Batch of 3 targets.
Target 1
Amino acid sequence: MRKNDNQMSPARQLAVSVVLGAVVGIAAILILFAGFAALIVSGTVPENLMVALACAAAFAGALIGAFVAGRRNKSRIVVVGALVGAVLFGLTLLGASLNESGSLISSRTPVYLAAFLLGGVLGGALNMKKTHHKRA
């Protein structure tokens, strides 16, 4: 943590962590999309797997973003992870609303919501400290 993080309120620390995690998550998703697009264009991966790859990118981006956010926040890390996933899903819906063709909500929307939230929660959970119990 930075020197001035001790001066921030816990709510502000949470908000900064979530925003940072969302930015990292979006960057990870964009990098994955670029890689998947190259694979599809080259013919290595069939085009009909595009939806599954997009869902995998959503999960991985939320996982990476939540992991980074949880490392920064150190408290309520599962909540931070879930919030990162929710923000990423909201940004995805915002992006879909800017597209003039098609509808905002589709039959795949719950799948993407689950991928974002599950990735976020698991990314936050990866930051949990493991406790070692002594056996008597």
Note: The two ends are 37 Å apart (CA to CA).
Target 2
Amino acid sequence: MTQTYTNSVTNTYTESRAIYITNKAFEDILGIEIRGFITSERAQRWRSDILYLLNKNALTFFEIQFTLPNGTRNGLRYVLKADGSIYGDDESGGDDFWNLPNGTSANILVSWKSSIYNKIIQNELAKRGYQTGHALSAAATQEREYSKDGYGFQKNKIGTW
């Protein structure tokens, strides 16, 4: 008796879909800029970095991490869904960054999957100023989805807001 197993993986990436979902996340990032936690230049760099990783088919998720003056950390995690399993396309925004106290700092963490481009991606991110970091470990609550044709981000709030 012979048994055969198959495994099919779908990737719904296209450049136009990547640009679309990056722009949706960028609208959230602009809220952080307006609040004064990052500069316009930094916001633009983050957008460029996210799009770079999407175009390499490497991104698994990114987090915008906030450190409050008292040391408490929370954030927003954007998990990439590229397998056709995401179809919600909510309005961007909805985050009350004004509820975070003055003196809060914001940083970005990116996580990518291993691939033949691993060393290239690592070198490029190092050139862009990235260092080793750690994802937030607090509980996550799904908040929104940004997608186009089965390709998108699931946005989660991490920690206490």
Note: The chain is about 30% helix and 25% strand.
Target 3
Amino acid sequence: MWSPSLPQRYRFLFRNLSSQLLLWVLLWSGSPALSGQVLTPNLSGADSLYLAAYEAAIRGRDGESTALLVRGMETFPADARFPRMLASRYFDAGETVKARSLYETMAAGDSSDITAWMRLGELDNFSQDYPRAMNRLHQVLATDSLHLGALLLLGDILERLEQSSARTYYERAWRHYPGNQKVGYALGNLYIQQKEPVKSIPVCERILAVDSTSIRFRKLLGYAFYKSNDPAGAVLQFNIANDLGDSTKFTYKFLGIGHYLLSNFSEAVRSLEKAAERDSTDAEVHFFLGSSLATTTRKREAMEHLETSVRLMQPDPGVLARIYSEEGNLLRLEMKYEEAYERYRLARDSNPADPTALYFMASILDNSLHRSKEALVDYRAFLDALDNLPAENLDSQSLTLRGIVEERIVSLREELFFTGELDPPD
């Protein structure tokens, strides 16, 4: 029912246009209907009241808009537009309790109301009630199996719950919405997390074919190459991201590690120093920076970064042993053999499953400190450790070292026998 003050031409428009579209026509035409003649709280018609609330919302008069919508619900309880718009306004304003109540009523009244179920799923996700959120989202998909928002949110929840089925929803979304950046990033990132980084590469490349300046996807593609053991591909993509203006620690870190893996140590140092400037608490950055500096004349700085990485890192045995071994190598180059031996011993203690440190310990005793009897003990310990390794853990380096050590043991026993320090050789 319309107010008598509404001009005849707008009555015709109202019969032929939706309320929202009509409002835009009125706004753009500069109609006097918006000056207070029609769209005011005094109007009795449901359509005029709804348009008044809509206009107030568009003009940023939130309190007025909410009051009009509440009045509309009270005056016209059968008109679904008022609770729907009011629920949306409550949702956007973060008034979750009020929004939830209205959306629950809508969903109970119409089980196929996708908007209500989707909003309820988002509210449950926000409150971390994940089982209920997933039930709501399945209600959305029961009506619209390709609803992008529901597919993405279900995938996100399952990913946070560390459920591999997250991939099912992301892949379904990607099949039906190829090129969508939200879907592409979620799926590409998940492939990397699930240790299948190669599958992330074509996803990123498809996005970049359309938007070549996307720094976000350049970095994701670079990381996928890095995780796929392709440091050259990683360096290329991180360089492009850097040229596009990205100067984050993440980019400099993996650009530097990529250069290190390609033996471009001077480039690695440049990038890793910038990464360290941005985050001095990243143990991995310090490790690769120290390892890169170890190839230069800056040996003392190299040692400092390696020691920093030990202090910062979580005690993963393999990584910790590698750091101690790198420090041992540096000290050996500086002819600090006793200190080098201690670092190799720490490497051995950190990761007993890797016998390589025993070889270096024996080698220092044998060739640098000339303590042959002690070297013989460590050489034998090295062979014993190799014998205890599972066959699948024996690589070509281990077999080569075994041959070298066996020959050296024979030579040492002979030398010690002739000096009277050992019984006759077998």
Note: The mean pLDDT is 87.
